[in-house]
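Lecture notes, continued. The same structure-token format from the folding unit now serves as the input rather than the output. Read the line below as a description of shape only.
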């Protein structure tokens, strides 16, 4: 009699070579249909505490205080990047668990920064960042908040002044953290502008003289902005932050695009044009092909150096060429009528010669009716 087939034996014989493959396919199927998520960070911390016999008081060095330890372990306070770094290093908890992102690595802290020293309150007030919570919450999460905000600038954002070759012209003490925040803000605004590529060497005195002639027109300030942008120069207006005392800035973005920024700290037409030409001078004279210099200027400062002196002279020449100024002898008889006549003849705004007279004489009360007081901010901030 013929023996019946032993199906289980046949299955083992024929399927044995594929046993590993089948197991792998089952694992992949289960991972796809029933994925196992990353452990909760708080649970991971508690697991390490149990493993190592740690009490809450033993975690103070990781969190900063006993109250913060309690708040984190009870889920009332999120982990900051500083906490995450310390937990990763001290307790060996994987970065992807603490960050809740598969394969994530903990970002390096840029420089030796004290994040709470940034003007967080002013940044929130101006709505430079989106944040829901109290000022105290924002300060606690300052590193995450600011690095996320400045991320489009890469390493350029928080590099030290010496690395950026940053020059600050100021009368007195300035807040370096406020300066950095303002620089980041104007750089981000400049990056939003989609312009033609700037051609190195574009800015010279002919370029500046053509620009200054726009002051003669009613919409001269807006025409100046358009003129710059059509030549690949980003133009930004942003009020200065407290403890910065800035009038303007000249810099280049990481891609090399030139930027001129103005604060309109002094709401006068003469100040607008002199500041604009001063910052143009920095781009023309002090930004080479490999130049990463950043110039942050308080133009009321009497303390100057060779670079700032060059920029002042270049700006004065751009606004009114020296030969014309000397020949006019306007500085010797600066009446309102004479200034208006000069401005009409050379087709510039009267504020430009009036402002030059005031600077040369260090007399900021004379010709005050000609310098355009209160006529700039309303155009840009309305």
């Amino acid at each position: 009699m013929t023996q019946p087939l032993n199906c289980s034996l046949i299955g083992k014989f024929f399927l044995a070579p594929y046993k590993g493959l089948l197991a792998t396919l089952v694992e992949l199927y289960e991972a796809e249909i029933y994925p196992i998520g990353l452990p909760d960070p708080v649970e991971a911390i508690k697991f390490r505490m149990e493993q190592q016999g740690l009490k809450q008081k033993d975690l103070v060095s990781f969190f900063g205080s006993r109250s913060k330890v309690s708040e984190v372990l009870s889920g009332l306070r999120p982990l900051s990047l500083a906490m995450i770094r310390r937990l990763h290093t001290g307790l060996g908890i994987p970065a992807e668990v603490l960050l809740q992102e598969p394969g994530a690595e903990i970002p390096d802290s840029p420089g030796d920064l004290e994040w709470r020293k940034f003007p967080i309150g002013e940044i929130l007030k101006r709505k430079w960042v989106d944040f829901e919570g109290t000022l105290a919450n924002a300060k606690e999460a300052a590193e995450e908040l600011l690095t996320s905000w400045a991320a489009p600038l890469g390493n350029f954002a928080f590099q030290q002044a010496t690395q950026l070759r940053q020059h600050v012209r100021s009368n007195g003490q300035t807040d370096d953290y406020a300066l950095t925040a303002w620089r980041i803000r104007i750089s981000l605004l400049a990056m939003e502008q989609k312009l033609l590529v700037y051609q190195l060497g574009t800015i010279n005195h002919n370029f500046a003289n053509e620009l200054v002639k726009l002051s003669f027109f009613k919409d001269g300030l807006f025409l100046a902005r358009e003129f710059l942008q059509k030549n690949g120069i980003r133009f930004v207006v942003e009020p200065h932050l407290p403890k910065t005392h800035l009038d303007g800035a000249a810099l280049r973005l990481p891609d090399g695009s030139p930027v001129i920024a103005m604060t309109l700290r002094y709401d006068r037409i003469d100040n607008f044009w002199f500041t604009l030409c001063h910052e143009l001078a920095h781009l023309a004279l002090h930004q080479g092909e490999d130049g990463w210099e950043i110039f942050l200027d308080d133009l009321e400062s009497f303390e100057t150096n060779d670079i700032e002196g060059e920029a002042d002279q270049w700006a004065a020449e751009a606004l009114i060429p020296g030969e014309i100024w000397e020949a006019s002898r306007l500085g010797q008889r600066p009446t309102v009528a004479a200034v208006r006549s000069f401005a009409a003849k050379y087709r510039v705004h009267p504020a430009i010669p009036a402002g030059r007279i005031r600077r040369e004489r260090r007399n900021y009360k004379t010709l005050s009716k000609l310098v355009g007081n209160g006529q700039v901010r309303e155009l840009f901030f309305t």
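Point for the exam: Residues 143 and 352 are 44 Å apart (CA to CA).
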